[in-house]
Every structure is written in C-alpha cells, then in structure tokens.
Sequence to fold (424 residues):
Amino acid sequence: MDSWKNRLFSGVFDGELSALYGPDGAQRARYAGLIDDYVNLFGEEPALLCSAPGRTELCGNHTDHQRGRVLCGSVTRDILAAAGPTGDARIVLRSAGFGEVSLVLDDLGIREEEKGTSAALLRGVAAALRSRGLAVGGFRAVLTSDVPAGGGLSSSAAFEILAGALFSRLFNHDSVDAMTLAKAGQFAEREYFGKPSGLLDQAACACGGITMIDFADPEDPAVERIGFDYRAHGYVLCAVDTRTSHADLTGDYAAIPADMGAVARALGQPFLRYVNYTDLDGLPGFSPAVLDRARHFFFENARVPHMAEALRREEMDRVLFLMNESGRSSRELLRNVIPASHPERTDMAVALDRAESLLAGKGAWRIHGGGFAGCIQCLVPAEEFESFRSAMDGWYGDGACFELRIRPCGVHFLGTGIPEAAHA
Fold:
C-alpha cells in the first residue's frame, strides 16, 4: 500500500482536505510533518490520521449548564493526530501543545495529582466510555494543534473528542456517536480535570457544522443543523485572541453556574430552564448581580432560536443585531467580561471597546465562550476585514485576529471520504 505521504502529495485526499479546510494549501505540509514526527518517534507509519475541530459559540453564552439552548459551530482550526494501537493498555502521547503523556488504563480512578493535565482528560474519557460498556485500549499518538490554548475555541474539548474518537475507531468499530463522545469529554473535564463545564464545547466539537442544541433533556439533546456561509453574505466571522490567561480564573467561571443554580434552587428547581422569568421579581436573599445573571439566562436562551432563524432566513441585519444584543447581555448582566476576583483586569473590556470603535456600527462584537480572558468574537464587513485584522494584530500581536471558518463535520479520519456532518 502507498504510504500516507505518497497519497497525500498525489492528491488522493484533496477532496477531503478541501471540505475540511477550504482553500488552505498549507494543510498538506501540516499532515506530512505529523506523519514524519510519528515515523521518527515510533519507527513505523501511523495506522490512522485524525482531525478534531475547535469550536465557536455563536449564541447562548453560559446557557448550557442551565439546560438551555446554544448555537455553535465547529471551525477549521483543529487538533491532528497520527496514531496507532499499542497492543496493550498503555497510552503514549506526544505533542508540542499538550506535552508528553504516558499512562496505563488498568486503573481509571480519579487521581488528584493529575487534575488540570492532559493525562486526566485521557483517563476521564476512557473511564466514561468504559462505564457505558465500551472498550478502551492503549494507543500511541503524535499531535499537533492550531487551536489556541486558552483562546476560547475549546482546545480541551477538541482534545477530549479526539481521544474519544480514537477509542471509538481503534476498539469499538467506529460505533460511538457524536453526543456520546461529547458526554464522555464533559465527564472527563468535570470529574477528572477539575473544571466545571457544560456540554456546549464538547457537543460543538463532536457534531460539526453550525448546530442549535437544546439541552432540556441532557441525555438526549435536540440537535438541529443550520447551513450558513458568512462570507457569502458579505461578512467575516473572526476571533481576536487577547492572549490573556484563564489560569487563575476558575473561581470566576465556577461562580456563574453556582449563582444561576442557587437562584433556580431558591425557586424550587434544579436549573433555570424550569423557572418562570417573572418569579425572579422581588426574590429575596440575592444580590442584584446574581439576579442579573439569572436574567441573562432567560434573555440569552430566548435569543438562540431567533439567531438560528435569522441564519436560516439569511437576514444578515438581524444576525448582527442579535449578536450585539448577546454581547451586551453578557457584559452587563452576566458580567463575564471583567473578573470579580481581579477587577483591575480590563483586557476583555478594552478589546470589545476597540472592536466597537473600529467597526463603527457596521458589524458585531461579543465576548466569546466562558469569558474573562481569551477571545472576543466579531462579524466584520468582508471589505474591511484586512484593515480590522491589521489593527487588532497591532494591539495583540501577529495572528491574534483570525477568521473562524465553519467546517462541515466533527471528528474526521483521513481516507474515509468527503466529510459530512456527524449525526448526534
């Protein structure tokens, strides 16, 4: 059989690469370098090449953990793996972005000393799949990623989905569906890694394309696909990575679901999804800031289907309006722009103000993902994108501003045909 590189450079995979990345000629070299790294480390060709995308949140900021709705999309920035089975229970993984990991799957219990590490995510994903009666086994892999860590595109979720997909293909005949992969990733992040996480990040990475996901029933979330091309409508969807760190902000993130959950429980429900908005009026025992977070949930949760409908109807003015409303609600009600634990850290507020000034009412801007640090998200008129990018790169460094192109699928194994969206 021809080697991976021979097929890669003879054009065998051109259709797949084009579907995954669009007109990005750099991907051949990226895959080729990964193959070389695997061969140099392990002395043989990898059994498979796998890609797992990062994700972008389009609407539904901090709604998923209250069993709300989200609108999200997988993006062309991804984590790649060259991998093969080891024939035993050991995982050996090497990458520049996630370090070197070596672990044995004979003990899948939580290890406190692993919390916050890639090993915790791998062990947690394996434990989640095994608890569902699925097989797990050892593999060795080399990874490379262009999903910026801490940039709000969910590099950790992409890593979790990648790990789950490798277990699925190598040991379960590709039988693990997208939502099961997402739940395994969420479990690993919450229980093993130690970070509170809804299901948005993992579901977006696993399902692919633009999707509206309703978590009213977390065991069987409703997933609706929406086809939309921002560039075809004259705009570029982009992110600006402020290159600020989330490292000491876990408490600020955890406070958001904790505050929302406390309000819900005070009204006799476990999640805000089951509370009536009018019941918030005059609710005693909570600060205005906590009640504002609950109000954000109701406004944002209602906004998601309106945004989805605007995309389906190709109503770009409505899309811009709703995106700005989402950003305003996150900033003023949810308060996930400036961390309460570090009120001097106004980096994200400054980035949003700079975007607003540059766009001068002709686009949209909002906090992206968890907030407090990382990325903002913008919609920029296509003819002004290069000047916008240049200005943002001038503030935050080369490559800080980058386009968020939507890709059609979640995990993809090279050589399996033109990718289509995964079925949840």
